[in-house]
Write a structure and sequence with these properties.
transferase, alpha/beta, nucleotidyltransferase, about 250 residues, ThiF family adenylyltransferase, eight-stranded mixed β-sheet
Length: about 250
């Protein structure tokens, strides 16, 4: 690191759990963020500020006026722009050293597989089960850890699915692909603006911890937030030995 980087990241470097070595890992890291909206905005902003070397944003949507209540990466002046282009501008304003790859596309399974294989950690900041399951499959196949978040109305949740750990479940262990889960959208149900900031920032925190190899991740644990009472609930999540997505991994007998 040069003198400017040592100064910029000095508050990370002062942490024993990160230090010079951990910050160097951030600078060399490749992080994939699926979704540049409510969750992707705070997550990407903190990852860029923290010094992640390459951030890839994937989203096929454009900035709408209704997004601005919570999608803090975008501005009024950028309404109508592709979210990934707006995001790249915002991230470079925070940290011009970060390489931002802006992909305006809805990635299919093959494309997700390619993108995930070229990443060190993946953040699922999408808003529908089809995308979440497709991202999970790609992460299981590539052996790349996944940080998944969700938020609707006043309810948020976050977990880590780290397939490098034989004991860690995958997303489909918790939410089976054939499960009958109600698909809800912010456009019809609403969402409390600070909630996505809380969950998105936690996704960034979990990703940085994974990259630095510090602390204990949320693998095997699902945390749920009721923002009405600002109360957290945590449940343990075990691997499903019959999971059609990850049953072939080592560790399940």
């Amino acid at each position: 690191m040069n003198d400017q980087q040592l100064l910029r990241y000095s508050r990370h470097i002062l942490l024993d759990e990160i230090g010079i070595e951990g910050q160097a890992r951030f600078l060399a890291a490749r992080v994939l963020v699926i979704g540049a909206g409510g969750l992707g905005s705070p997550a990407a902003l903190y990852l860029a500020a923290g010094g992640v070397g390459r951030l890839t944003l994937v989203d096929d949507d454009t900035v709408d006026l209704t997004n601005l209540q919570r999608q803090v990466m975008h501005t009024t002046a950028r309404v109508g722009q592709p979210k990934v282009e707006s995001g790249r501008e915002a991230l470079h304003q925070i940290n011009p050293e970060v390489e931002v790859v802006a992909l305006r596309e809805r990635a299919d399974a093959a494309r997700l597989g390619e993108l995930v294989r070229d990443s060190d950690v993946v953040l699922d900041c999408s808003d529908n089960f089809a995308t979440r399951h497709a991202v999970n499959r790609a992460c299981v196949a590539a052996g790349v850890p996944l940080v998944a978040g969700a938020a609707i109305r006043f309810d948020g949740q976050i977990s880590v699915f780290d397939v490098r750990d034989p004991a860690s479940p995958c997303y489909a262990c918790l939410f089976p692909e054939d499960g009958k889960f109600e698909e809800v959208a912010c456009s019809t149900m609403g969402v409390f603006a600070p909630l996505v900031g809380i969950i998105g920032a936690m996704q960034a925190a979990e990703a940085l911890k994974l990259l630095a190899g510090s602390g204990r991740s949320l693998a095997g644990r699902l945390q749920m937030l009721d923002a009405r009472a600002m109360e957290w609930t945590e449940i343990g999540v075990a691997r499903n030995p019959c999971c059609p997505v990850c049953a072939g991994r080592p560790g399940v007998e």
